[in-house]
Design a protein that fits this description.
Radius of gyration: 24 Å
Largest sheet: none
Strand content: under 5%
Distance between the termini: 92 Å
Number of helices: 9
Oligomer: single chain
Helix content: over 70%
Number of strands: 0
Length: 275
C-alpha cells in the first residue's frame, strides 16, 4: 500500500439554510436599509448645502417629464376608462343612481389613484433610466473619477434628479388626475348617460384630499430617485450588473411607493378625513 500522503479535501462553504439563511437575509436587508438611509440624508444635505446647478435640474426635469408624459397619459387614460366602466356596472346592479359617481371618482382619483398608481408607472420609467445611467457610469469608472476629484457622486448625480423628480412627479400626477377624470367622464356619458355637468361635481372634495394628494406626490417623487440612484451606485460586474441594478431599481422603487402609500394614508385618514 502506498504511503503517499493525501491532501485533505478542499474546504467547501455551504450555502446557509434554515435559520442561517433567514438571518443572512435579515442582515442584508438591515445593511441595505442603512445605506439607503445614508444616501437619502446626504441627498437632503446636498439639496440644501450643495452646489447650485439649475441647468442640471432643468435637464433632468425635461428627461423625466418629456419622456414619461405620453406613457403615463395612455396608461392612466385606460385605467380611468376601465375604472368608471366597472364602477358603473356594479352600481347599476345594486343601486342605479349615478348622481355622485363623478364626485366620488374625483375624490378617489385625487387622494389615491392618481398619485399612487401614477407614481408606480413613473417609477418603472424613471427608476429604470436613473439606475441604468448611473450604473453605466459606475462600470465605466466615471463615478470613481468623481471620487478622485473629491466630488461626491450623490451631489453630482442624485441631487439634480431628486429635485427634478419631486417637481415633475407633482406636475405629472396633476396631469394624470385630469386625464383620468376626463376619460371617466367620457365613459360615464357614453355608457351610463351621465351628463358632463353631473359628472364634473366637486361636492365631495375637501382641502384635506388635495393636501394628501400633494404630500404623496412629494414623498413618492423623493423616493424614486433616491432608491434608483442607490441601486445604480451599487452596480458591479460590468454590463450584466447594470441589468441587475435596473431590475432592482424598478422593483424597489415600486415597493417604496407601496410602503410609503401605507405610511402616508393611515395617518391621513385621521388627520384629513374624507367627506
Amino acid at each position: 500500500m502506498s504511503s503517499r500522503s493525501q491532501l485533505p479535501p478542499a474546504s467547501r462553504v455551504d450555502e446557509p439554510s434554515g435559520v442561517a439563511a433567514l438571518g443572512s437575509a435579515a442582515l442584508d436587508l438591515f445593511y441595505g436599509a442603512r445605506e439607503l438611509y445614508s444616501v437619502f440624508i446626504r441627498t437632503l444635505y446636498y439639496t440644501v448645502r450643495g452646489r447650485r446647478e439649475p441647468g442640471a435640474v432643468v435637464k433632468q426635469m425635461y428627461e423625466i417629464g418629456n419622456n414619461s408624459v405620453f406613457f403615463v397619459t395612455v396608461v392612466m387614460a385606460c385605467i380611468g376608462l376601465i375604472g368608471i366602466y366597472q364602477t358603473g356596472m356594479q352600481s347599476k346592479r345594486l343601486l342605479p343612481d349615478f348622481t355622485l359617481m363623478g364626485a366620488q371618482y374625483l375624490q378617489l382619483t385625487v387622494r389615491e389613484l392618481a398619485p399612487t398608481v401614477g407614481s408606480l408607472i413613473i417609477a418603472t420609467r424613471v427608476g429604470a433610466g436613473i439606475a441604468a445611467e448611473i450604473g453605466s457610469m459606475v462600470v465605466t469608472e466615471q463615478v470613481d473619477a468623481l471620487r478622485m476629484c473629491a466630488a461626491d457622486p450623490i451631489d453630482f448625480l442624485i441631487k439634480p434628479r431628486f429635485i427634478a423628480s419631486i417637481v415633475m412627479t407633482t406636475v405629472l400626477v396633476t396631469w394624470i388626475a385630469t386625464v383620468m377624470f376626463c376619460a371617466g367622464a367620457v365613459t360615464a356619458y357614453n355608457y351610463f348617460d351621465v351628463s358632463f355637468r353631473t359628472f364634473f361635481s366637486l361636492g365631495m372634495i375637501v382641502p384635506g384630499d388635495l393636501y394628501v394628494g400633494l404630500i404623496k406626490c412629494v414623498v413618492y417623487g423623493a423616493a424614486i430617485p433616491v432608491v434608483s440612484g442607490y441601486c445604480g451606485l451599487s452596480t458591479f460586474g460590468g454590463s450584466e450588473g447594470v441589468g441587475w441594478a435596473t431590475t432592482r431599481a424598478v422593483v424597489n422603487s415600486c415597493l417604496a411607493v407601496v410602503i410609503l402609500d401605507l405610511v402616508v394614508s393611515v395617518p391621513a385618514f385621521f388627520i384629513f378625513p374624507s367627506k
